[in-house]
């Protein structure tokens, strides 16, 4: 078989795997892990039932890969912003805007992350991924809040608790937005920032 044909076949395999993952994200997000069957994912993907086993051994494997994507994407989003230049206030604003924009287009991954953090039925490996990356996310946010306090931009409070409050608030807001789609612009980013930073005029 020629390299060109090999490449084309690989592209087809990658596309089908992505199709299954997108279908899995939607079904798991809507039905939860316990309420999802492999047949539900296959039906959503509009592929033959036997084909799924060329890519995944079980629905558990699909869920674990989706959970890993959800948590690693979140971690990289936070890491890149925290380690970028700009004042702590500017970075916190950029991060908040970025998270809202990202979850507006990938709400199912947020729901997968949420159930991985709260459900006792999800695979243990997925729960372990959640624990690892959630802890790293909080460390990055704590670092950002410490910088903001040193530079006088953020209010003085326990930086870890501020990081935890910020993370909890964003989770609550995203969940509300997914529940009530008409509230896309609620709350405004500046409303959230005012809770953690000293009041400042809009530039």
UniProtKB/TrEMBL annotation:
Residues 14-74 form the HTH tetR-type domain. Residues 37-56 bind DNA. It holds the Pfam family TetR_N. Coiled coil: none annotated. Keywords: DNA-binding, Transcription, Transcription regulation. The keyword tRNA processing does not apply. The keyword DNA-binding applies. InterPro entries: Homeodomain-like_sf (IPR009057), HTH-type_TetR-like_transc_reg (IPR050109), HTH_TetR (IPR001647), Tet_transcr_reg_TetR-rel_C_sf (IPR036271). PANTHER family: HTH-TYPE TRANSCRIPTIONAL REGULATOR BETI, HTH-TYPE TRANSCRIPTIONAL REGULATOR RUTR. This is HTH tetR-type domain-containing protein. It comes from Paenibacillus motobuensis.
């Amino acid at each position: 078989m020629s390299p060109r044909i090999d490449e084309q076949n690989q592209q087809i395999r990658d596309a089908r795997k992505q199709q299954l993952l997108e279908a899995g994200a939607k079904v798991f997000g809507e039905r939860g892990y316990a309420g999802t069957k492999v047949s539900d994912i296959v039906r959503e993907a509009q592929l033959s039932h036997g084909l799924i086993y060329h890519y995944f051994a079980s629905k558990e494997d699909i869920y674990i890969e989706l959970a890993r994507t959800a948590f690693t994407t979140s971690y990289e989003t936070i890491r890149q912003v925290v380690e970028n230049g700009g004042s702590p206030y500017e970075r916190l604003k950029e991060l908040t805007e970025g998270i809202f924009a990202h979850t507006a287009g990938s709400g199912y991954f947020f729901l997968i992350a949420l159930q991985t953090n709260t459900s006792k039925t999800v695979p243990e490996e997925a729960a372990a991924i959640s624990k690892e990356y959630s802890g790293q996310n909080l460390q990055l946010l704590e670092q950002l809040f410490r910088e903001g306090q040193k530079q006088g931009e953020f209010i003085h409070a326990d930086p870890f608790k501020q990081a935890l409050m910020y993370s909890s608030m964003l989770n609550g807001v995203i969940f509300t937005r997914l529940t009530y789609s008409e509230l896309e612009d609620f709350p405004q980013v500046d409303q959230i920032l005012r809770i953690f930073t000293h009041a400042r005029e809009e530039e």
